[in-house]
Design a protein that fits this description.
Blueprint (H helix, E strand, L loop, with lengths): L4 E15 L16 E16 L13 E11 L4 E4 L3 E5 L3
Antiparallel strand pairs: 1-2, 1-3, 3-4, 3-5
Length: 94
């Protein structure tokens, strides 16, 4: 971490996901919950800024589906320090 850290920006995207296929046959009382195999970013839905001194960001109200995010960190002078790869996650009813 840089001594001149200023903020982190979280870009949140909807994602187009590839899901595990349904097995066609499951046992009585069992529920199939598909897993997210891979995804690619689709539409930017929000950018969140997390200022120095705050070490988390809670994002509420997301619907079921696939999402992606990317983190970028900046100095106190707004110079880019780091940008992550895109990471993907599902929100599902289990």
């Amino acid at each position: 971490m840089s001594k001149d850290y200023g903020k982190t920006v979280i870009e949140l995207y909807t994602a187009i996901g590839k899901w595990t296929p349904h097995p066609n046959v499951i046992g009585r009382g069992m529920k199939f919950v598909p897993g997210l195999i891979s995804a690619e970013k689709d539409v930017l839905i929000a950018k969140y800024t997390v200022e120095d001194g705050t070490y988390f960001k809670s994002i509420n109200g997301l619907a079921f589906g696939a999402y992606g995010f990317r983190l970028s960190q900046y100095t106190s002078k707004d110079e880019l320090l780091f940008t992550s790869d895109y990471y993907y996650f599902p929100i599902q009813d289990k």
